[in-house]
Design goal:
By secondary structure, the protein is of the alpha/beta class. It has 5 helices and 10 strands; from the N terminus they run αβαβαββαββββαββ.
Length: about 200
């Protein structure tokens, strides 16, 4: 979501990164950079991608103000081939990216691209709003499990949909958590790339 403090998923992910000696991550859908900056302050090299040039400009200002040299940021449409070499990244992190207005096919392709760039046994951590969220099946039904409310489309997930995105991965964890005042109800998903 939004705010200045790091998200719960970022705090949990940092512990996982430290336990696994991960220092090189890609953050997909970095938004205004609250998690990007948190990771960078904790000695993680972050390559932050976001569709919004305004968001990337904010991240750039934050990293410059804090003199963080371990953040790279780019405006990028994650529906395209990711700009990284095969098997070059330790982990990917995305908070709420998967529940944007992305079709199942687009999610499958994004997952394949993440799998391509991850090193063997690399981690893909993402969060999604789930089927117990108060906004689920509210508003205008757009397609699949996507609903529009106040001009914003959200793609909701149940555990079966999470498990349907496991091609090339083994699932380590699916954990429920809540965020915000509403509160929004989400899954924290931790997948590991299968070793070749």
């Amino acid at each position: 979501m939004f705010g200045l403090d790091p998200s719960y998923p970022a705090k949990k992910s940092l512990r996982i990164f430290k336990e696994n000696k991960i220092t090189n991550i890609v953050e997909l859908g970095a938004g205004l950079g609250r998690d990007t900056i948190y990771f960078a302050k904790n000695n993680i090299n972050v390559n932050a991608l976001d569709y919004s040039s305004a968001a990337i400009n904010i991240i750039n200002k934050k990293k410059d103000d804090l003199k963080l040299i371990n953040v790279k940021s780019s405006v990028y449409d994650i529906r395209k081939k990711l700009p990284f070499s095969d098997s070059s990244i330790d982990a990917c992190f995305s908070h709420m990216l998967y529940c944007m207005a992305l079709t199942k096919l687009e999610l499958i392709n994004i997952n394949k691209e993440i799998c391509r760039i991850l090193k063997p046994s690399g981690l893909n951590i993402y969060t999604v709003r789930n089927e117990t969220d108060g906004d689920y099946q509210k508003g205008i039904h757009v397609a699949e499990d996507m609903y529009e409310s106040d001009g914003f489309i959200v793609h909701f997930f149940d555990k079966d949909k999470v498990k349907s995105l496991l091609d090339g991965y083994s699932n380590i964890l699916i954990e429920k958590f809540e965020e915000g005042n509403f509160p929004r109800k989400l899954y924290f998903v931790l997948n590991k790339k299968l070793s070749n």
